Amino acid sequence: MKKLKADELYRKYGIVLILIILFIASAMINSNFLKPQNLINILKQISVVTIIACGETMLIVSGMIDLSAGLLCTTSMCFAAGVLSATNNVPLAIFTGISIGVVCGWVNGFMITHFKLQPFIATLAMTNVLQGVVQLYTNGQSIGGVDKIRFLGQGAILGIPVPVIIMIIVVVIIAVLMKNTKFGTCIYAIGGSEKTAIASGINVNRKKRLIFTLSGALTGLAGVVLMARLMAGMPSVGSGYEFDAITAVIVGGTSFLGGIGTVTGALIGSIIVGLINNILNLLHVSTQYQLIVKGLLIAGAVIIDIKTKENKKSR
Amino acid sequence: MIKRFSKKGRDKVDQKTVVELRNIRKEFPGVVALDQVNLQLKTASIHALVGENGAGKSTLMKILSGTYTNYEGAVLVNGQEIHMKSERDAFEHGISIVSQELNFVPEMTIAENLYLGREPLKRGFLLNQKERSRKAAELMRMIGLHFDPEMKMGDLSVASRQMVEILKAISRGSKVIIMDEPTSALTNKETEVFFQKVRELRDQSIAFVFISHRLEEVFSLCDEYTVLRDGKWVGSGRLRDVNEEKLISLMVGRDIQEIYPPVMPHGDRVVLQVEGLTGAGFEDISFSIREGEILGFAGMMGAGRSEIARAVFGLDQPAAGTITIDGKPCRFRTTQDAISAGVAMATEDRASYGFVGVRSIRENIMLPNGDLFTRSGFWQKPKINEAVTRICGNLAVKAPDADTLVGNLSGGNQQKVVLAKWLVRDVKVLILDEPTRGIDVGAKQEIYKLITDLAQKGLAILLISSDMPEVLSMSHRVAVIAKGKKIGVLENKEATQDKIMKMIVEADK
Question: What interface predicted TM-score (ipTM) does this complex get?
């Protein structure tokens, strides 16, 4: 048998190992945890953030970041809800939500590639703009009358909730995109060494705009799913989702320095965060403590990441 | 041109041993990095530490400078055995290191950098800026540097920054200064000035350790040598008693008769024709390269050679001029255009333009070859694996497998990967900018052989190098570039180092 070294084992399966350990521990701590309904609930709860995290993975791997994803999700949700309650046309509502994501994503990308703004700053500016737009559009009120989209948020196929199915489809598509396509290899190359990508004949600016546009589309989709889950367009929900998504990405082993990371990692990272929240809920631990645990989790994930890299170097 | 320094009278100086390393052994998990290594450093002497990459030079110096504290053997400073516990400890015993990556704050002034962490104070806690400035100026005057101490460190040339780093070491009372590849970023002229200053400091009883790949510099600057090979001591002595061939054979463990392959005949058909190319840093450059021909670009660093190459490769946009490949006029707006026309370039700065260190050999080779290996955007695995295995075999890339990260390879193998990613496609023109910089002798020889083989296959090769013997021995013709202009072309037979230097000096006037 091939002997595997501890840190290689971690590099390959570490995050899955942590998930398994957490899973077994949770099952032992609380008997309600293993009930199918509870497990499905966890997946349902992480679906929106995971879809956003798929976009953030592409961005962070290519050395960028989107801070506006949370507010973009809110904006898509509210406008999709508005269109739906006005026209009762579900495809049009979905189209509206995703289009808003596409447009805002492209604008972010344009600001970064054309005016050479830092992604951090460009998307921070976008966050503020969107905050204003959402308030103007909704007057701070929730938008109801969206019953026709119920299936997308509340329905299930073969017992699996529709949002979970959407999430899985998105993860699979982006995973294949990043692993098996030329575009995917460009994402890794841009994050690993932008200059090398340029010198290898890649139109880096166009690729960056494309990554942002695609990520925006996913965030728009996440907004539509969120609206269907809440059965309303809520201007107060969605802000902060960008950090939840980034947390999932980081816990899932994506390097903030760029060039390394996968969406399957982000999915697992997202499940880990959801699982911890769930078990703490079952144990009636208050949200304040949950936040503290989440913070420690992020720091822990990154420390492990650095440590395993150090081991690799010293050999 | 670097002058041989007269060593007359150097023996009169009373030289005593300041540092002695005895039977040093250092292990890393699974590897013995150093074994039974001895080294003696004398005052008022420059000691060259030479060996191939991975021979243990840096490890040895990290033990001496207190970075590695876990080793076997003895370190003696002024005859007393001392076990350094930290870099600070080494510092206090008068040993400091000026490393390849300089440690300074570019946004701070020279004076601020010199006295960082030990700023002169008044009344115990207020910064005494005047005093700091005065002291810094005095220190610089000592070795004939006349900069305003309030100048920003980032505005100095690399050579001057290095001098400031050395000054910092001296002002802290260092008696032993280790210089790791200090000249790798300097022009020949800067190097000469730098060496002059180092010699002056040596004569003030400072002991230097000089690590360099450039043997020419070792002979021009140093007094003594120690050669390491595979972590073992293989020889020490006075440099005047050996020649370059002897030193190389000690380094590689065998006699290297001739590291350059013979110049082979080339075809007549012109592949690349450049006319009147003008851009930032160069003007009115015309040259042509024929099938199977190697054209060398000789000149100083910063003469505009790399800029010309970047324009031919589409990395920068030329303001005027034409590029013709196989008789077809081309205009390269991006590197993509150049690559499709059959131009490839291995840039001077491998780590930033050549490869993606955090990704695998396979992916690096895939990167510019999407047009060959994809169908509707999807990579075709079997095709890729076949090509990667073939090219890595041809170039003898030494790695466990194609999934190895390029960042974990040695410099020579990294360069091979850069070449591999271009050679899987049909390249007509190959531009090599400093292809052997930072690569050890053995790997250099392989790369030279490879370049000659590629030319034999009909590629037109543009070879840019600051290593004169390299450019002279490899090229069919040598174009001399100075101040952004082509000042002449020499045939291989008539080209000599002296002639080229004369041309450059003439152009400087």
Answer: 0.85
